[in-house]
Specification:
The complex is a heterodimer of chains A (about 90) and B (about 150).
Chain A: E1 9-13, H1 15-21, E2 25-28, H2 39-46, H3 51-56, E3 64-67, E4 70-72, E5 83-87
Parallel strand pairs in A: 1-5
Antiparallel strand pairs in A: 1-2, 3-4, 3-5
Chain B: E1 2-7, H1 13-21, E2 27-34, E3 41-48, H2 52-67, E4 70-78, E5 80-83, E6 87-95, H3 98-115, E7 118-124, E8 129-131, H4 136-143
Parallel strand pairs in B: 1-4
Antiparallel strand pairs in B: 2-6, 3-5, 3-7, 4-6, 7-8
Helix pairs in contact in B: 2-3, 3-4
Classes of the chains: A alpha+beta (about 90), B alpha+beta (about 150).
Chain lengths: ~90, ~150
């Protein structure tokens, strides 16, 4: 067995989360050290990236997430996902 | 027959429901969601998660078709800016009889509100704007279909 190559992780933001952060997408080329984290633990760590990130992630109860375009709880481990999305509760219809 | 669309264009209810009326059933039910005049609202802006939205709507239609004997489903959601009174969403169902068409239509709009990644932003006449907060009553309405 060869060691799997590190896989990039796309992080997408929507609605006010994207506005507060000031961008809609980030690309982590080397995401290996995040893959054992839950989404909540990742957000806690990633919050230090900028004042916008800090503000957007300040209240986890206002955030929802999807891994590879499936809704999931913030307690889910990021694992092998290619895409993580962070957004407010949905308000369509 | 299933017709699922996410579009910036206005929704032509008559043309969309005609698709269902051309099927050999005896019942077509529909729900139309409109931009409502809330506290001086001027415009609504709909954002979505491209890719995930399409998959989420297709999964909802799959669930409805497995649960009720449907001949057809139309599910159209607009994105982008829309003015007061314009259509945001259209759900239409066709079946042999009314009970299945009505129940499936209610299921689809209740679940769409909680299971599809859309977000609404309101723009008011006084120049203010803000993101719409999710409502607990929508979660309750969606949960009634769990049983």
């Amino acid at each position: 067995m060869t060691t799997p190559a590190s896989r990039p992780l796309s992080i997408l933001y929507f609605a006010w989360v994207a506005e507060q952060i000031g961008c809609r997408q980030e690309q982590c080329e080397d995401a290996d050290d995040m893959r054992s984290l839950t989404i909540a633990a990742f957000l806690a760590r990633h919050a230090a990236t900028s004042p916008g990130h800090t503000a957007a992630f300040a209240r986890a109860d206002r955030l929802r997430a999807a891994l590879d375009q499936q809704f999931t709880s913030l307690d889910t481990i990021i694992g092998n996902a290619r895409e993580l999305a962070i957004f407010p509760p949905v308000t369509g219809g | 027959m299933r017709h699922i669309r996410i579009q910036t264009d206005a929704i032509d209810t008559g043309a969309e429901l005609a698709r269902l009326e051309s099927l050999p059933g005896g019942a077509v039910a529909s729900f139309t969601g409109l931009v409502r005049d809330d506290n001086g609202l001027l415009e609504l802006e709909l954002e979505h998660y491209p890719g995930m939205t399409e998959a989420a709507l297709a999964a909802l239609v799959d669930t409805a078709c497995a649960r009720w004997p449907l001949l057809g489903v139309v599910l159209i959601h607009r994105i982008g800016p829309m003015r007061l009174g314009e259509r945001i969403v259209l759900v239409g169902t066709a079946s042999k009889h009314r009970a299945a068409a009505l129940a499936a239509c209610a299921f689809l709009i209740d679940r769409l509100k909680t299971d599809a990644p859309f977000w609404k932003r309101e723009h008011f006449a006084n120049g203010q704007s803000g993101w719409v907060e999710a409502k607990e009553s929508d979660d309750d309405a969606a949960a009634r279909w769990d049983k």
